[in-house]
UniProtKB/TrEMBL annotation:
Belongs to the glutamate-gated ion channel (TC 1.A.10.1) family. It comes from the Eukaryota. InterPro entries: ANF_lig-bd_rcpt (IPR001828), GABAb_receptor_plant_PBP1 (IPR044440), Glu/Gly-bd (IPR019594), GPCR_3 (IPR000337), Ionotropic_Glu_rcpt (IPR015683), Iontro_rcpt_C (IPR001320), Iontropic_Glu_rcpt_pln (IPR017103), Peripla_BP_I (IPR028082). Keywords: Glycoprotein, Ion channel, Ion transport, Ligand-gated ion channel, Membrane, Receptor, Signal, Transmembrane, Transmembrane helix, Transport. One of its GO terms (biological process) is monoatomic ion transmembrane transport. The lineage of its organism: Eukaryota, Viridiplantae, Streptophyta, Embryophyta, Tracheophyta. It is a multi-pass membrane protein. GO terms for cellular component: membrane. This is Glutamate receptor. Glutamate-gated receptor that probably acts as a non-selective cation channel. May be involved in light-signal transduction and calcium homeostasis via the regulation of calcium influx into cells. Residues 901-920 have a biased composition (Polar residues). SMART domains: PBPe.
Amino acid sequence: MPRRARARGAPSAAEPSVLAAGMVLAFIVFVVPPLLAAAAGGAGNASASTAAPAATTVPVDVGVVLDLATGLGKKSLLSVKMALEDLYAARPDFTTRVRLHARDSDRDVVTAASAAVDLIRDERVSVVIGPQSTLQAEFVTYLANKTKVPVISFSATGDAAIQYHLPYFLRACAKDSFQAAAIAAFVEAYGWKNVVVVYEDDNYGVGILPSITDALQDVEAHIIYRAAIPASSPDYLIDEELYKLMTMQTRVFIVHMLPGPASHFFARAFAAGMMSEGYVWIVTANVGIVLDVLPQHTVENMQGVVGFRPYVAKSARIIDFMSRFDALFRAKYHQAHDVRMARPTIFQYWAYDVAWAVATAVEKVNRVGFPNTGFQTPQDVGKNLVTGLPTSTAGPELLSSILEADFDGLAGRFRFVDRHMDVPVYEVLNVVGEKARGLGFWSPGSGLLRLLNSSFTEDQAKSSVSASEVLKPVIWPGDSTTVPKGWDFPVNAKVLRIAVPVRHEFKNFVNVEANHNTNGSRASGYSIDVFEVAVNRLPYALRYEYIPYDCANSYDQLITQVYYKKFDAAVGDVSIIANRSKYVDFTMPYTESGVSMLVLAKNDDRTTMWIFLEPLTEDLWIATMVFIFFTGLVVWMIENPKNERFQGSKWKQFSTSFYFTFSTLTFSHDQIIEKLHSKVVVVIWCFVVLVLVQSYTASLSSLLTAQRLQPSVTDPRQLLRNGHYVGYQNGSFVHAMLRRLQFDERKIKVLSTLEEYAKALKAGSKHGGVSAIFDENPYLNSFITQYGKDFQIVGPIDRTDGFGFVFPRGSPLVPDLSKAILNITEGCEGFQIQKKWFGDATPSPEYGSPDTDSVRLSLQSFKGLFIVNGFALCVMLVINLPEFIRAKSTELRDLSLQRASSSGEFASDNEPQQLQNNNAAPGEPLQIERETD
């Protein structure tokens, strides 16, 4: 009993050792892990809760996953800490304090994922800031979505990170795809059509390809090659890829890499001589952002490079941050040898804003009740790495609070749009000397701008405005100010093999002859001359050789050879049609366009009985008659008082005056006028009549000639209705056009030579020939110049774009040659070439079918003459009107006296008296004429 009582009432000698063992175990379980975690965090683990006593604030754990061995990682972590210090200093009333737990991802995807697992499972962090790269973010996003822990990255710009719907991953930076439109606008502004994309061979590098491809296609530019370069490629592999790029014609390169691999790549490009004049290098935002902080030796290798980066306006807040950041960074990392590398970039601005947004969201959630136990432990803990992770109960509230953040941050307006920052304004940079010089900006609404407050409108941005008119001048590689044309002959350039079709007819276009001196061939003709003159106008030398190609009268075979690059080009009388343009590129046409109809001209003597009236229009006939009567009236008014020929009865005066005026039309009038004023009127009127008669004669001759020469057929439907035979040139695409016009295959004949053309038309359908030949206008004009006016061209019947030179799709020679051809055809040089091969004049398609309305004379053509004549008539009328009125008054008075005398008012019948004639000379007897009706 006593022994039992002692056992129950007091511990035995072995019990203290058992208690000690339990205490040690508890220490290992509950105390050691936090200490180990703190040790693993190293110097990076810090608490931001020191600003307030622990008893008055709630610590909230936040994880940070960065590559702490890199400059970006070190700077970003410092920026995050500065943001928390600034926030809590400005808002000491906050009841929460973010406690950072930093992990080094060591530039490794697996390490980054392991760090995220450790932070979520062991540290029970509520939010993870990071990871640093797109590759690391791809796996961490799945962890975030599963555990409902928001992950916010300020530097994972690659599009591959959020290809799927992962709501707990947020991107507090600009996506790489945003800059695609800015780069495409830059390429378009300089007129480059082909580019090469050099990208990092991983998910980050390929992420931009869809967006940059679409953006370039929108501006009619094409990616002709994609150079994938692994981030850890040795020098010899990069050199091999660079040599491959040197053997291409394209000289515009878009480089999409992270700063480290990009620096290595440009060092090799500089060594290969590809940073010289004529090259264009464009870097994307990840490199553009750090251009100001790259090492000096790297910048020296990138002279002339053009870059893009999101624009952040300089403000007092930015300047203060930069000053404090520079001092803290250099003091902590002893960065004194290169002051450039201690400067912050936009990545640090984004990191600052992210930390500010996270701390603000934590405070907001805490005020409505932040759960003390923030995680739910799953039942299957330990089965595997992922399923054993706890789930954050506060995650949805934190995510919602962060998404609602809207404030002015260091980098601008901090606001999430579809879980990423909005499309920013991009700054266009040019590496010159030791810094990146600003050229201008690009905004989503206005395009390229020199200044952000520019009045440059969106309509002007969409128009064809060159970059030199918008951006500041660019200093290109090789310290050149000349805009590169975007392509050049490769270092191993070969002589261009140009196919020339062998023609058996129409040799004035293309004629291939054997050259016995060189055992080769010689090409000549109108098409050859135009091509050679255009080549001579190019701003560079072009080496080429002609290779005869017998395409069996089918130019489609020639197009096929160029399409499969058996030839580098084709020069000849090749028609530009839609079906061919699907496979090759054509230069601007150098001949007129259209398909017309060649027919036999016929004489038509059936002239109308009133054709003599057609030379003058109705208004001119009326005006002529009016002026005839007006001129006769003025002449009569001037001559009537004193010229006996214009006196007498009314009928005599009328007939004399207007017969005289009408006789002037044939210049057969008599010299019956006496007064000077009348002669002035007649002289002016005779000049008007001279011009009218000469013009009338010429117009009537043209009408009579045109009436005699008429085409035998004027409409293809007439041929179809009558079942006539038609012809076309052997091998021409016109055959398909005739079938489209519903001509019967049995009524279509193939003709090869000019003699066959003439013979078939003269024979006609009834005698084994054809009634019409359908061909392109250049061929028909050539035929007409040789065979004269026995034939006529009617049309055009169908539209084509004329002849052009053929090149493979995307050939950079096409725009340069097109400009040269345009200058030739508009200048006198093109006329001289045409005169050399086709004579002084080449008839138009309407030759032989004149428009009768065009040769008729209208009043508009003679308005000036009639105005002068009318003015002279009016002046003479005003001058002579008083004298005419006095004469008429005297005549009436004399007539009254005569009538009174005859009635006996002044004398009786036995005493006849003589009446004095006022107009009679003194001493002459009075002569009185009896008035007759």
